[in-house]
Design goal:
single chain, 209 residues, alpha+beta, Butyryl-CoA Dehydrogenase, subunit A, domain 3, 2 domains, 8 strands, 13% strand, binds zinc ion
Length: 209
C-alpha cells in the first residue's frame, strides 16, 4: 500500500495529525490559522457523486444537438464543438483551442481528477498519489470554466432571438448539468489529502464550526 500523506498547511508548511470533521466544520492550522480542510454538509461522498454525474453528462453534451437556428424555413443545428470548428476554420486557432480547453476538455479532466481523488479516499487511507491528484485538481480549477460558456450561449440566444428562431437542444441541457455538477463537486471538495492523514509531528488541526 502507498504511504499515507501528511496534512500540510499550504500557507506555513505546518504538518498536522488526523482529525474527523463534521459537516460545515473547518480544520484550521494550529500555527497560522489557515484553512486546511472542510467537512461537506452533504456527506463525504457528495463530491464523488457530483464528479461522476458531471462525467456522465459530459459525453452527451458533446454528441447531442446543442442549439438549432431556423429562419425562412432553413434550419441549422449546432453541436457543442461547432463554434470551436468555426473559429478554427476562420483563422482564430488560438481562440478555438482556448474555448475547447476551458469549455470542455479541462472541466472533464477536473471532474476525472475529483472522481479519482474522492474515489481513492473512499477506498482507503490517502496516499502520496492523492496529493498529486489534489494538486492537479487545484491547478485546473482556474482554467475549467464551463459556466462562462453557458453564459455566452444564453447571451447569444437573447441577442439573436429577434433574428432567428432558436431552439435549445438536449446537448445544451447536458452541458449545463455538467457545469453545475462541476461547481457542486468543487464546492464540496477541500482538495486536501485528508480526511485522516498520518501525523508527522503529532500536532492536530483545530476543528472550528
Ligand atoms: Zn499554517
Amino acid at each position: 500500500m502507498a504511504p499515507a500523506a501528511p496534512l500540510v498547511c499550504r500557507m506555513c508548511g505546518q504538518v498536522h495529525g488526523p482529525v474527523r470533521l463534521k459537516g460545515g466544520e473547518n480544520a484550521l492550522c494550529v500555527r497560522c490559522g489557515g484553512n486546511l480542510a472542510k467537512g461537506s454538509r452533504l456527506g463525504p461522498d457528495a463530491p464523488l457523486c457530483f464528479a461522476i454525474s458531471g462525467l456522465a453528462f459530459a459525453v452527451p453534451s458533446a454528441l447531442l444537438p446543442f442549439l438549432s437556428a431556423s429562419s425562412l424555413g432553413n434550419v441549422r443545428t449546432s453541436l457543442l464543438f461547432t463554434g470551436v470548428r468555426s473559429l478554427w476554420l476562420g483563422g482564430m486557432q488560438p481562440l478555438a483551442v482556448l474555448v475547447f480547453l476551458c469549455g470542455w476538455f479541462l472541466p472533464v479532466l477536473l471532474l476525472a481528477a475529483l472522481a479519482a481523488l474522492h474515489g481513492a479516499r473512499r477506498m482507503g487511507p490517502p496516499s502520496v498519489n492523492c496529493l498529486r491528484v489534489s494538486e492537479l485538481a487545484r491547478s485546473l480549477e482556474h482554467w475549467a470554466i464551463p459556466e462562462v460558456q453557458v453564459l455566452a450561449v444564453l447571451v447569444g440566444i437573447i441577442k439573436l432571438g429577434s433574428i432567428f428562431t432558436l431552439t435549445i437542444g438536449p446537448g445544451f441541457w447536458c452541458y449545463c448539468a455538467m457545469a453545475l455538477s462541476l461547481l457542486l463537486a468543487q464546492h464540496n471538495s477541500d482538495f486536501a489529502p485528508a480526511p485522516e492523514p498520518i501525523a508527522a509531528d503529532g500536532s492536530e488541526p483545530a476543528p472550528s464550526p
